[in-house]
Amino acid sequence: MRERYYSKVILFGEYSMIFDATALMIPLKKFSAQWRFASHLLAQGAAASNASLQRFADYLSTENELKEIFDLARFNHELYYNLFLDSNVPSGYGLGSSGTLVAAVYDAYAKKKSEDLLQLKALFSKMESFFHGSSSGIDPLQCYLGQPFKITPKGVQLLSDDFLQKDIHICLIDTKIKSNTKPLVNHFKEQRKNATFLKRFQTEYVPHVSYCIDAMINSNKDLFFKSLKQLTKGQLEFLLPMVTDNTMALFTNEYDFNFGVKISGSGGGGYVLGFTDDVERASELLKDFEVIWL
After folding, report:
1. What SS3 state is found at 109?
2. pLDDT tens digit string along 217-252?
């Protein structure tokens, strides 16, 4: 069993993955969760975590596809003795607060663990749907593996921890707004029922996601920032409700150096992702925001 379960960042593919398109994930080790027992549930956060885990255990026990996979008797026994998940992963920020929980429960209580990553993704999707109504399963998979990966309909390609190009710098820009994943995802799913929207999203938006991923993995900086610019425009056109008012200028302004942004997670708050090859100029541009450089 792992000692810690790290948060995650979806660099690209947060909505296109709903179409089984390519996505790129990395662990974010600044935030993590780990199992603990509280001496009493008055400890800060312990009671809320224990109660949340109890609700999740109840959910697992009612789902025929899930209840046979887990040792729920042991899980409930340890919850009775004040088990909780000690986590500093911010909730509502698209960093995998529910993903770390799902990964931790699977790692600790699955009777037999699968090594088939697509099978794991499907299982995690069913588990995490308790929190969001629906889930791709990709967040818990990242939190479980703790390793960068590219995912396509054909499978999961694990990447080395140092695959990122050294002169493409990534930051998290705090919107100071908590995001509610479920209504945003539901809004997007309603939109895609429109045949015109669906066709345009698949032909005009999804390819730029793949271009950004491939350019980043292949260390093609010029193509990366060119593709990112088109992706940002696509988010304004197809995912506008997911862009917060206080970051709108970052999406709409033109820059005289390599800098671009995109939503992370479901959008609507949380963090916005920023990319640049000039940290000094980007830091000056973002001086009014709280920023975490990865």
Report:
1. helix
2. 999 999 999 999 999 999 999 999 999 999 999 999
* DSSP state, residue 18: G
Kindly report the length of the chain. 294
pTM for the model stands at: 0.88
Measured CA to CA, the distance from residue 111 to residue 71 in angstroms comes to: 6
Domain boundaries 169-293, CATH class: alpha beta
Where do the domains of the chain lie?
5-158, 169-293
Q: Is the predicted pLDDT of residue 1 greater than 90, yes or no?
A: no
Residue identified by tokens 């080395």 is 160
What token pair was written down for 108? Answer: 């600790």
Q: What is the pLDDT of residues 107-160, one digit of tens each?
A: 999 999 999 998 999 999 999 989 877 788 889 999 999 999 999 888 899 999
First CA to last CA across the chain, in angstroms? Answer: 26
Distance, in Å, from the CA atom of 5 to the CA atom of 3, rounded to the nearest integer, reads: 7
Contacts of 219 (CB under 8 A, 6+ apart): 165
CATH topology of domain 5-158: Ribosomal Protein S5; domain 2 (3.30.230)
Within the chain, where are the H helices? 46-62, 64-67, 72-80, 97-109, 117-132, 138-145, 181-191, 195-200, 206-217, 221-238, 248-252, 279-285
- 8 A C-beta contact, residue 116 and residue 155: no
Q: What is the pLDDT of residue 43?
A: 64
Give SS3 for 72.
Answer: helix
